[in-house]
Amino acid sequence: MTRYVQQNHNADPNRTYATGVSSGAMMTNVLLGAYPDVFRAGAAFAGVPFTCFAGPNKWNSACAQGQITRTAQQWGDLVRNAYPGYTGVRPRMQLWHGTNDEILSYVNFGEAIKQWTNVHGLSQTPTSTDSPQPNWTRTRYANGAGQVLVEAVSMANTPHNLPVQAAAAITFLGLDTAGPSPTSSPSPTSSPGPSTPPPGPGGCTTTFTVTNSWPAGYVAAVRVTAGSDGVDGWRVALPLPTGNSVVNSWNGQFSATGGTIQVTNMSYNGRLSAGTSTEFGFQANGPVPNPSLTCAAL
């Protein structure tokens, strides 16, 4: 359903998120765990970790009462095993929970932190702790580049029916900015690269953008836009300079990790109507390039 909207209504795959409260928070964990290639981030208010509520019945009392605890590695493995072979970037997660939650034990908050920090390869020790409002304790877990991948807010003396902080979730997701990077993280280097000429009928164009960079590597996105006749599939020639090596990729099939890489569409993002776009992305080691891409309709 989400991919259909992306393809048919020009929704941005890099700004596709999930959020919810209670059972909606459980579903947010499920969506981010099962579909890391679709969702870029989520905000879960008073939920439980991915798979915690699984069972033969509609209600899982053991999970609700905080009786299901696992190591961070075990929780992380449950997410990784939901999509075997996935090597792309994992969604960022924001977690909220009240300490007096009488429906879904506060224990689940700590278990979810264990799970998502492990999924991202982070320590359970926060990189920062603060109190943005009285009775709130916010812990953040950032990677080596300073990007906050997990954010957790504990609300003291708060029941299950917690006050939903929509504005804080919007900020974490990055929906209050013009680009895909959240304001709660350091601003990435955004370097639009060259675009291909306007397409003729049946053709396609590309735009290359560096969305984040650090001394040893970068993350880039390539937008593919269909010409006036639309396309049933596409292929992009992505020339990378010597010293560049792709380590993660998403929303495209990459033929190699270095040199000139041929990137073709996935099964869900190949057909584009006239003037509509899709994006694929990748993380690479090496200096930031400024490649000249070519796009061909298939």
UniProtKB/TrEMBL annotation:
Keywords: Hydrolase, Signal. PROSITE patterns: CBM2. It holds the Pfam family Peptidase_S9. SMART domains: CBD_II. Residues 197-298 form the CBM2 domain. Residues 177-203 are annotated as: Disordered. Transmembrane segments: none annotated. Residues 183-201 have a biased composition (Pro residues). InterPro entries: AB_hydrolase_fold, CBD2, CBM2/CBM3_carb-bd_dom_sf, CBM2_carb-bd_dom_sf, Peptidase_S9_cat, Plant_Biomass_Hydrol_Est. It comes from the Bacteria. This is Cellulose binding domain-containing protein. It comes from Micromonospora sonneratiae. The lineage of its organism: Bacteria, Bacillati, Actinomycetota, Actinomycetes, Micromonosporales.
